[in-house]
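ok new one. same drill as before - structure tokens go in, u give me an amino acid for every spot. 364 of them this time. try not to just spam alanines like last time pls lmao
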């Protein structure tokens, strides 16, 4: 015989035992109950496990009143999401407003109506579970989009319609050299472990520098800086180049793990960066959208990545102009790439500068 779902646990807080007895008589059949006769005891109960799913809290108590108890509960990450319902003889509108201001979700006046208590408790438990369900769903879907984009959608800074705009961006592409050929004979589980571990490490670096992770394409990665948030063209470019150098360093650190798991697969990554105007926004159908960047700058960054030597970061002239005071770079022979009919000036970034003297800048 299977047991039914566990009863929710409520915490009843009141300094008058007779009031606790009345509440327990109303709620005891449907819920597991914990009781506290003071605010301090209520806080101690909330330090243990399991946490109550909802708290019914008296306002007028000696030593520590319900307002202070509620304030402390809402200040703690452990207890701030527990719904608090004030149960009180105070009926002044200002008192009620003060209680809601410190984080209570509802007010029940004494003497209580059993039907009202049961209904309010049921409603707020259902609301809590609905919020938790939405949060879990949000976390699930957020794993499919950039954290920068997700945050901007929540703040209302990014529309979910078919809209786009022109923005100066710095765009980054990378891929693992010879990945398909090297992993063709690997077991799918091993290849998945390697690739997901690599992308997880790269994604942490992207997030730390504030980049928008556009997409993973096989073993390739596209990131851009400048939308939905920007720190200015120069700062965006600096963040992108610093990100790329940290990625190359992390790749070197991951190599022993790759060798151990893949019987000799070499992890070598090439990277390309370009800066310029792009069209950025939502593209696709009304049923399914992709938040991405399009334009010549995007294509150029992809082409530069394809031309880069393994283990290097190649930047276009426009990017170099934005970062030259912070990073050392070696000029490369004129480069011709598909889709662009003129020779391109490109640079291989070798590391950060130790000085920003005019002489050093001229040398680069």
């Amino acid at each position: 015989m299977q047991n039914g779902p566990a009863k929710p646990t409520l915490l009843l807080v009141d300094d008058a035992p007779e009031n606790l007895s009345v509440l327990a008589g109303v709620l005891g059949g449907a819920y597991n109950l914990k009781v506290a006769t003071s605010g301090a005891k209520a806080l101690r109960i909330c330090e243990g496990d399991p946490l109550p799913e909802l708290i019914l809290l008296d306002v007028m108590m000696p030593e520590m009143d319900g307002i202070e108890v509620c304030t402390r509960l809402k200040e703690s990450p452990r207890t701030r999401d527990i719904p608090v319902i004030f149960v009180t003889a105070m009926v002044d509108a200002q008192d009620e407003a003060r209680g809601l201001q410190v984080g209570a979700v509802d007010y029940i006046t004494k003497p209580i109506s059993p039907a009202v208590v049961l209904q309010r408790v049921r409603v707020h438990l259902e609301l809590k579970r609905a919020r938790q369900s939405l949060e879990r769903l949000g976390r699930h879907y957020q794993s499919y989009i950039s954290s920068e984009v997700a945050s901007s959608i929540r703040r209302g800074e990014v529309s979910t319609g078919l809209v786009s705009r022109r923005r100066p961006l710095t765009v980054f592409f990378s891929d693992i050299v010879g990945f398909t050929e090297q992993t063709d004979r690997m077991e799918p589980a091993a290849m998945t472990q390697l690739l997901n571990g690599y992308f997880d490490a790269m994604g942490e670096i992207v997030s730390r520098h504030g980049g928008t992770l556009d997409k993973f394409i096989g073993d390739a990665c596209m990131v851009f800086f400048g939308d939905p948030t920007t720190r200015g063209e120069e700062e965006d470019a600096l963040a992108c180049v610093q990100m790329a150098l940290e990625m190359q360093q992390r790749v070197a650190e991951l190599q022993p793990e790759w060798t151990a798991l893949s019987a000799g697969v070499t992890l070598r990554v090439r990277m390309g960066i370009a800066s310029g105007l792009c069209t950025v926004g939502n593209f696709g159908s009304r049923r399914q959208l992709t938040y991405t960047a399009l334009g010549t700058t995007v294509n150029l960054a992809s082409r530069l990545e394809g031309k880069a030597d393994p283990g290097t970061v190649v930047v276009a002239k426009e990017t170099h102009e934005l970062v030259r005071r912070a990073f050392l770079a070696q000029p490369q022979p004129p480069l011709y790439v598909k889709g662009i009919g003129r020779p391109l000036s490109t640079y291989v970034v070798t590391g950060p500068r130790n000085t920003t003297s005019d002489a050093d800048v001229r040398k680069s």
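Confidence is low (pLDDT under 50) at residues 356-364. and btw The longest strand covers residues 269-284.
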